[in-house]
Structure formats: structure tokens, C-alpha cells
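A favour, since you know our C-alpha cells better than I do. Go ahead and set the record down below.
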Amino acid sequence: MPQNPLHVVLIPDGNRRWARAQGLPELLGHREGAKATEKILDAALKTDITHLTFWGASVANLTKRSPEEVGALAEIFEIYFKKLAEHPRLHEHKIRVRVLGRWAELLPAPTVAAVENIIKVTEGYGERNLTVLLAYTGTDEILYAINRIANAARKDLELVIDEKFVKMNLWTAELPPVDFVIRTGGEPHWSAGMLMWDVAEAHLHFAETFWPAFSETEFLKALENFKNTARRFGQ
């Protein structure tokens, strides 16, 4: 029986390679990638997806690339978080926005302010959920959880540490497990241990298309393929 994915993750890879293939500056690839993000977010609203998680940038993306590129990325995030906070569909669909990672530590003040604002103005929503991983790595998240669990265990020697308790201590405590991951760009590798706890049973889709060229049609086709794939969960 076809099943709709409720929690979908998008890894938008290929901005710079798309720009190079077009003979354009790499920074323009990030700008075109931001436009593609708007398009796919709109497409997701036409589906039954209740939780959409979007890979924004890893810690390495913001610490190991050139100051020019990092500055451009920060500016793009600032512009689009401001734009999203005022978008009528955000409020019409009661979309709660979460931003997970070390963004407050690694991004400039104007970008941090834009992130804090959209979190605040949507914190009462919940009909749909948009999560952005920004200055994020999965190892940071797991270490955060381990430290919280260790502190709790020191205070309660009879504490039972099970799957539920681990989940409660992750950054993603309020999010359901991931059903489906779509990565563009033609390179079938993972990104910095992304959501390593939550993707345990996820289906994976690797698209050859670079993110700026990734279309609504291709996105919806990937979802349709997922719906027609049996999920056996080891059975």
C-alpha cells in the first residue's frame, strides 16, 4: 500500500558545480540555489509532508571556505529568512520553523537576528514544520545528547537510558524519524553525520541534477517513487 513520507530531508548539493558548468561565478550558484529552494518549498506545500528538513550549511562550510563565500552565504540566509518570515503561506499553513546547529556562534549578527526572528514568530505554529540545519554536524548533535544524558545519569543512578530517552536529548527531540532523504548533485555520500539517529530507517534518493536545476517535477517524481516502495523495516 503506497505511503506518503511525513518527514522528508533535502540535501541541496551542487550549487558551485552548476555555476562552473554554466561558466558563471560560484557565488551565483548559491543565489540560484536559494531560488530553487523557494520553488521546492512551495512544491512541498502541495503534498502531505508535515515535516520538511533542509540542509543549509555544515560547520565546515562556514569555517573552511573563503571569507568571501561564507559572507555571501550568510547574506543569502539573512535575506531569505527575512523573506520567509513575511511570506503569507508561512502563516496561512501555520509552518513552524526550527533552525538547528551552531548558527548563533558562527554567523554574523544580522543573520543571527533574522534566524531568531523567524523562530520567534512561528513558535506557536505546528500544522507543518520546516527545519533548517545551519552550522550543523551530526557529531555535534550526538555529543550534545551524550553530555546531557551523562549529566542526567550522574543525578539519577537508576536512570533507564533507552531509545526514547536518547531521542528526548537530541536537537531533533520534537521531530519524527526521517522517512525519505533526497540529495541532489550526483554524489551519493552523506553530509557531516546528518541526523544520524533519525535516518536509521530512511529511504535514500540520490539525484544527478545539481540543486539550482532541480525542478518541482523531479521532486514530486521522487516522492512518488518513495510512495510506491515497500518499507519493510527489517521484516
Notes: Residues 7-137+178-226 form a domain with the Undecaprenyl pyrophosphate synthetase fold (CATH 3.40.1180.10).
